Amino acid sequence: MGVRKTLCKLGDIPDGGATVREVENADDPHSLILLRRSGQVFAYRNECPHAGRRLDWAPGRFLIENGQLICAAHGACFLVETGRCIDGPARGDALTPVAIEIVDGEVRTL
Ligand code: FES
After folding, report:
1. pTM, whole model, 2 decimals?
2. pLDDT tens column, 19-46
3. From the CB of 50, is ligand 1 less than 6 Å away?
4. With b meaning 16 or more CB within 10 Å and e meaning fewer, what string describes 66-95?
5. Which of 9, 50, 74, 76 is within CB 3.0–4.6 Å of 88 for a Cys-Cys bond?
């Protein structure tokens, strides 16, 4: 069983927006996208299935429009709730979801 890690407070993520957290695992360091929709948070690896690039255009700054997260590299559009790509060069692929929980207003890995 992995160690649960607090990523941020729910209030650190703008409602309707997103933030990023770098996970410093020694064996698997990676970047996470955390997207908030009121009390819900959706978490994905910050790695586009098209060419493996980060999706933010600057650290923690994402393009989000009409419920879609748009990769800053080549414009692939992903549904916030599922991570599925519905348009652009990664069409048919999906972001890799990451299991999280919200406890006492904190977002934690599972
Ligand atoms: S790397 Fe995301 S659309 Fe190309």
Report:
1. 0.94
2. 999 998 889 899 999 999 989 999 999 9
3. yes
4. eebbbbbbeebbbebeebebeebebeebeb
5. 76
